[in-house]
Amino acid sequence: PPKKKLEKQHLDAAEKALQDVTSKASKHDDDPRDHIHTPAAQERSHSWFRAIFPYNSLEEFESAWHLGNYVMDRETGEKSFEEMSIYVRIGMHLLYYGSHQEDMLHWKRSQDMLRNQSVKMGKQYDAPESREHIQPFIESFHLQNTLSELNEPDPNKYNTFNEFFARELKPDARPIAEPKNERVVSSPADCRLTVFPTVDLATKYWIKGFGFSLKELLSSEDLAKKFEGGSINIARLAPQDYHRWHSPVSGTIESITDIPGTYYTVNPQAINEEGTLDVFCENKRSVMIIKRTPTSSPVALVAVGAMLVGSIRYKPGIQKGATVQRGQCLGAFLYGGSTVIVLYPKDEVELDKDLVKNSTGACCETYVKVGWRVGAS
């Protein structure tokens, strides 16, 4: 069929599927494991997938489409497969199904759809009725053993789902690696981390979408020049993760700039696919520049929103001129997956070899937690 007709057919199907998933999520007496938190590989997902994908069986579908990601656990050295949720897989379809998919992504309708669904989910999970989704969410992602780490470990005491989603940890829940050594830099989040000594290596091994550049990411040519030849850390927060991010260094906040954008999925399968749009430079994001204490060098933290992320929120007092310590909480994402990108100037940091090896050799994310060592000056 003609190009426009083909694109509209697929956009219609994806829009209907995503609306169906988010609408079912608004029915707070329904178990979210039967819709928005359903793993994409399960039979329950098929009613939505059949509206989009041409396949005849689960086996055929799994062999033809990405349904999850491999992640290395830094503590155990074990590699495991993590299934993606159904709403992420639908968002993936928007990114690279069909030969003209990247053209479709620029359609105002497509961007409006993702924005509207993200705002919709944010409002739904701010409603008091959304408390009914907390316990199924805990069970769906096997979070029972993590509750003791929280400032408020009782799920029944949270007023909304988003309040639980942006839950706070106890002060001692994430010890900072080598706390007296200001040369050490830390992970900004509980996350699936990739690190690269240069941006060129990041685009070779990981960021395959067209259009990625420091100038576009930071929305500033002058800022981009400060990080030319420097290293990059990409910290992806999955929905089940503790969803606050922390400072990887000590220093003074020089600026915070909010950049409007859309709400594409930040799942690795979208980031790694050649020929797709680069979502980091297209998505809504906030850029913080910290003047690092021991070196006076700039460090950039880019908080990137994603599909169904309601908002990016800084903690009170996190503003220009504020002094922050390594490991200090800076802000939180509300519902959805999201990413924090950290940029260091050239020769500022030597990244830990095991993380670089996993990122460039195995082309695999590494699971780390807030405050864990990532490298040192």
UniProtKB/TrEMBL annotation:
Keywords: Decarboxylase, Lipid biosynthesis, Lipid metabolism, Lyase, Phospholipid biosynthesis, Phospholipid metabolism, Pyruvate. One of its GO terms (molecular function) is phosphatidylserine decarboxylase activity. The keyword rRNA-binding does not apply. Residues 8-18, 26-37 have a biased composition (Basic and acidic residues). Pathway: Phospholipid metabolism; phosphatidylethanolamine biosynthesis; Lipid metabolism. NCBIfam families: PS_decarb. This is phosphatidylserine decarboxylase. It comes from Zasmidium cellare ATCC 36951.
